[in-house]
Design brief:
Number of domains: 1
Oligomer: single chain
Strand content: 35-45%
Helix content: 25-40%
Distance between the termini: 48 Å
Length: 195
């Protein structure tokens, strides 16, 4: 399979201000034709810090926790047309995961958020092969190539659009820091659960 390179906007908003890196991002957009609701589920898999200093790694974890717990973010997303139904940070198989579930009725909001285009037949996602740290490694769409561009496309009446993006190359410190940051988050989650 040809690998397609693309960087998700949500990743930039969620992790870039710190030196956090995510290995894969699974995005699902589910259309409910009966209610006209659009549900978006984003799963960030295997989050770690790219920092070399342990204090910076701990600061990255604090930043990540703050981002997930920040209530101002809820208002920002509402202004962008999204109601956040659920968001959580958890450890699974010794990896940090973050999940966010959003709801909207506005197709324009998802088009803007995920760089999607729409015509009378298809939802389309333009792809850039060179200028991205991420590549789309799986999807339920069709790769459509022209002389000037590559797109993923899905029939307009599809019930679910899904794709998974993977970081092309993990920083050297990523795996080294993963164990420490997972341990710290696990301890934090256990403490907050007891409250």
């Amino acid at each position: 399979m040809n690998r397609i390179y693309w960087i998700p906007c949500m990743f930039l908003l969620f992790l870039l201000p710190a030196c956090l890196t995510v290995e894969t991002i699974l995005t699902r957009i589910i259309f409910d034709k009966n209610t006209e609701l659009i549900r978006i589920i984003i799963l960030y898999e295997n989050i770690s810090s790219a920092e070399s200093d342990i204090q910076d790694v701990e600061a990255d974890l604090k930043y990540l926790i703050d981002q997930v717990e920040d209530e101002a973010y809820l208002l920002e997303r509402l202004e962008q047309g999204f109601y956040i139904k659920k968001r959580r940070l958890f450890v699974q198989e010794q990896k940090i995961m973050a999940e966010e579930e959003l709801i909207t009725r506005d197709p324009e909001a998802i088009m803007k958020e995920f760089n999607l285009l729409q015509d009378s037949l298809y939802w389309k996602m333009p792809l850039n092969k060179r200028d991205s740290d991420f590549e789309v490694v799986s999807h339920n769409g069709e790769l459509f190539k022209t002389e000037t561009e590559n797109n993923l496309r899905w029939p307009k009446d599809i019930q679910e659009i899904t794709w998974k993006s993977q970081l092309r190359q993990l920083p050297e410190s990523f795996e080294k820091n993963r164990k420490k940051i997972v341990e710290e988050l696990d301890n934090y989650l256990k403490k907050t659960k007891k409250k």
